[in-house]
Amino acid sequence: MNLFADAENKNRQNAAPLAVRMRPRNLTEFVGQQAFIAPGKLLWRMLQADRLTSLIFYGPPGTGKTTLANVIARQSSAAFIPTNAAQIGVAEIRTIIKTAQDRLAVEGRRTVLFLDEIHRFTRSQQDVLLDDVENGTVTLIGATTENPFFTVNSALVSRSTIFEFEVLTIEDIKTLLTNALKDSERGLGKYQIEITPDALEYLALMSDGDARRALTALEVGVLSQVSISNDQKSIFDKELAVESIQKKALVSDPAGDNHYDLASALQKSMRGSDPNATVYYLARLIVGGEDLRFIARRIAICAAEDVGNADPAATILAAAAVQIAEFVGFPEAQLPLAQAAIYVACAPKSNSCTQAIQKASQDIKNGRTIPVPAHLRDSHYPGAAKLNRGVNYEYSHNFPNAVSAQTFLPEGINEKYYQPTDRGREKQISHHLEQLEIIKTQLRASKNHPESSK
Questions:
Q1: What is the DSSP letter of 79?
Q2: Within 13 Å and on the Cβ side, how many CA atoms surround 255?
Q3: What predicted TM-score, i.e. pTM, was given to this entire model?
Q4: What is the average per-residue pLDDT within 116-120?
Q5: What span, in angstroms and rounded, lies between the C-alpha atoms of 244 and 238?
Q6: What is the DSSP letter of 208?
């Protein structure tokens, strides 16, 4: 019976894809994520001491989340239960927890529950885990490609240590591919294959830090070239690498981190006056299939928020890009979007208008709402004069330079909300405002200024 089971396991192992067969069996074989799994780092110390707390592994596909969970399973003395949130429900979770309670009571042995794709659980489903995670009956390891601060209950997050997995570096991917080519037990070492440096570089580059994608491409290429019975050495060159690896799947996820990270990078690059970074992130959004209206709105917001009156043409151009892009659609829409985004990036910057409206809004929220002064109130209706509406209002065009000395802010407010910079068009605006103040001061000092108009 044991012989049959061993044969069955061996057959399953041989039938598994290369990416599964080459999963590391211990921390020594694990590649990448050195920020927390290198010797002496936090997770490494936790595993060495066999003192796991609940963990959440968060990061892109193919970066080692499930792989590291399997390594932990081998290294920990606790019972390891692997599950997937897309395949089980509350009833199954309750069964696992009950078994874990019995195991702890009878054997004194802890249970580690690995819940892959934990973001697929609803909030109520996640709540089922709270009490037993908190009291230590179950040690949870959740894996997710979604930001846990948005997709996992805050109570569960607070009970867990979050480890963010980064995409693997090109050197990490090269190491994995080289190891797979050398390993004759689990990898492709039984084949007579020699990979060229440019083919190795290409696979590492085009895999986008996804180990699974890189190993799958390598296996496809090797198996298409050689067979076990073929003793002749085969060359895995760049042409074969290009044929073997799938085209990048740059699909936009409107609710995912990448969606907002790219949008943030685009806006910050425009604000940072870097047209090259701007057009790069713009292209990432466009090629990824992002909604053109979402992109156009970001450009328009940046034009108003970060350029403002330093170059008013930026807002005009952004508004035109919004209209043109929506009118023509993709692929042509990329042209006005690129023109507007690059213009905003190159324009002089000022957030004076942004600061002005934010400061005024804050004052209104935090202070007393002061009535509009009587001379500024609407006087265009019968009976307004009896209520002193608009009385003593000074019509600006009755004065030289179309400037009166009258005040417009409510009494008690003397804040200068708008303070233009000395950059771009605002330098001229600043000079103009200084001249207006001189004129108003002179008018206030004069006793012979014209009669005001009602």
A1: E
A2: 6
A3: 0.67
A4: 88
A5: 10
A6: T
Q: Is the CB of residue 28 less than 8 Å from the CB of residue 173?
A: no
Query: How would you list the strands of the sheet with 79-84, edge to edge?
Result: 79-84, 111-116, 138-144, 55-58, 161-164
Q: Could you please report the per-residue DSSP string of 326-394?
A: HHH-TTTTHHHHHHHHHHHHHS----HHHHHHHHHHHHHHHS--PPPPGGGS---STTTGGGTTTTT--
**In DSSP terms, which residues pair with 195 in a beta bridge?**
236
d(C-alpha 268, C-alpha 65), whole Å: 30
| Of the candidates 169, 243, 164, the residue with the CA atom closest to the CA atom of residue 199 | 243
3-state secondary structure (DSSP) of residue 56: strand
What's the rounded mean pLDDT across residues 70-82? 84
Q: How far apart are alpha carbons 263 and 286 in whole angstroms? A: 11
Residue 346, classified by CB atoms within 10 Å of its CB into exposed (0-12), middle (13-18) or buried (19+), is middle
For residue 65 the two structure tokens come to: 């989340």
The C-alpha atoms of residue 18 and residue 218 are separated, in whole angstroms, by 9
Angstrom distance (rounded) from CA 218 to CA 314: 48
Tell me the residue type at 158: S
Q: State how far the Cα of 284 lies from the Cα of 145, in Å rounded to an integer.
A: 19
pLDDT digits (tens, 9 = 90+) for 308-364: 999 999 999 999 999 999 899 888 899 999 999 999 999 999 999 999 998 888 888
Backbone angles phi, psi at 452, to 5 degrees: -80, 155
